Amino acid sequence: SSPCAGPPAGPPARSAAAGGQSPGVGAMVKSTSLTKAELVDVLHTSKTSKERNRAVKLLKQFDPNPRYEHDDEGQKSKMQPKKYDYLLGFMCWRCDKVKQSNYKVIWNTSKGAKQLCHGCYNQLMEREEVAKMRAANQKAGIIPKGFGLGLTGVGDGTLK
Known about the structure:
34% of the residues lie in helices and 19% in strands. By secondary structure, it is of the alpha+beta class. Strands 1-2-3 form a 3-stranded antiparallel beta sheet. Helix 3 runs antiparallel to helix 4. Residues 6-29 and 156-160 have low confidence and may be disordered.
């Protein structure tokens, strides 16, 4: 029998000195073994800026999984932008990226209210504006209908 044989050692104990903070939720955020959903939950329930900043830093390591399926509902009338006096930490529903901003948009979709970042809000507003200008220009005859150059709408490749 070798002198090294014995019971397998468990994971090292997390001490306040090694972790740099007291045990608890903050200690959990320090470890990167949390899932994205758990980190989002920590972000929502964090009481201190230190906890929130750690959750944001770890969430930035995850690849975004953007959701554009409700973009056709992106009208200004369904969105409520709000500016806060303090910094918010939240996940943008559309681009699926963690954001730290004092500006947040609540978007009322057919599937419920969603949180958006300012960048996604601007993209949706620009998309709505372009659609209105396209319709007005087609009505005025400036842009021919069905030209298929991306000027006439998505997937409109028929010639008339």
